[in-house]
Write a structure and sequence with these properties.
Layout: E1 7-11, H1 16-27, E2 31-36, H2 39-51, E3 56-60, H3 66-80, E4 85-88, H4 103-131, E5 134-139, H5 152-171, E6 177-184, H6 193-196, H7 202-207, H8 217-228, E7 238-242
Parallel strand pairs: 1-2, 1-4, 2-3, 4-5, 5-6, 6-7
The protein binds nicotinamide-adenine-dinucleotide (NAD).
């Protein structure tokens, strides 16, 4: 077991990628704090982990609120006495062209996707410093690297995450805390369900990757285990793209020799 008795907070751990990360970290021996707005889903994942002889609790959390982020860390410390791992997975997305993109949508996406990770890091880092070690994993996207249509705030927030990750890693020099970003591509979760299941485009979009399919939450969770473990002690201020090669290659019909 790579993470025996490590304490891991996973934001948005009630469904999709976050839920799979909770289960996978627990299977490696970590005790899990599921920090969720959606308590019902959080409880389902907590029960699943307990059913596999793991340990998990749910803390009702809105990562965009400073008091709520602080409470998340307080509850984790009260229950488990330390925090080893923070996975800043919670995220939201509104899709709207700039002409219709409201200030409220902008504020919501920046608050949850960028300010949220900052607040959760702020609440957890003093405990990691006391602990003498820590691993923080932020969540970017393929949208961290390129413009995507009708997603100005999402792209801005997910690009900002790469800067936050690097700046935090530098600020934590000498503290033995690694800060890295996972950048998923097309992953079939509730977040993307309507695209993955789109009868006209769904399959074709999967085929745009080099691997030739949509990703699954289980394609992401292995990297979360790795970045949480001692195997990743020399990886800091960095990012890993998990997109089936989508960002690495753009081929066009007619340009391939065979
Ligand atoms: N699914 C993809 O294809 C994809 C691609 C690139 C990046 N991502 C990123 O991966 C992360 C997870 O995505 P997903 O597809 O699993 O999403 P999802 O919508 O399936 O799950 C997100 C979870 O976060 C929770 N959440 C939302 N706002 C919250 C808040 N303010 N505080 C606490 N919890 C909150 C939700 O309740 C939900 O359980 C997100 O950061 C997303 O931007 C996903």
């Amino acid at each position: 077991m790579k993470l025996k008795d490590r304490i891991a907070i996973v934001t948005g751990g009630g469904k999709g990628i976050g839920a799979e990360i909770c289960v996978r970290l627990a299977s490696e021996g970590a005790k899990i704090v599921i920090a969720e707005m959606d308590i019902e889903n959080g409880e389902k994942i907590s029960k699943k982990i307990q059913g596999n002889n793991g340990e998990a609790i749910v803390v009702e959390t809105n990562v965009a609120e400073e008091d709520s982020a602080n409470n998340m860390a307080d509850v984790a410390i009260k229950k488990f006495g330390k925090i080893d791992i923070l996975v800043n997975n919670a995220g939201i997305r509104h899709i709207n062209n700039i002409l219709d993109h409201t200030k409220q949508q902008w504020d919501d996406m920046i608050s949850v996707n960028l300010t949220g990770p900052y607040l959760c890091c702020k609440s957890v880092i003093p405990h990691m410093i006391k602990n003498g070690k820590g691993k923080i994993i932020n969540f970017g996207s393929i949208a961290s690297f390129m413009g995507r249509p009708d997603r100005v705030a999402y792209v801005a927030a997910k690009s900002g995450i790469l800067g936050l990750t690097r700046a935090l890693a530098v600020d934590l020099t000498g503290k033995n805390i690694n800060v890295n970003t996972i950048c998923p591509g097309l992953i079939s979760t509730p977040f993307n369900q309507k695209f993955a299941e789109d009868p006209t485009h769904g399959k074709a979009w999967g085929k745009e990757t080099i691997v030739g399919r949509w990703g699954l939450p289980s394609d992401i969770s292995g990297a979360a285990v790795f970045l949480s473990s001692d195997d990743a002690d020399f990886i800091n201020g960095s990012e890993i793209k998990i997109d089936g090669g989508w960002l690495a290659a753009k081929t066009r019909k007619g340009e391939i020799s065979n």
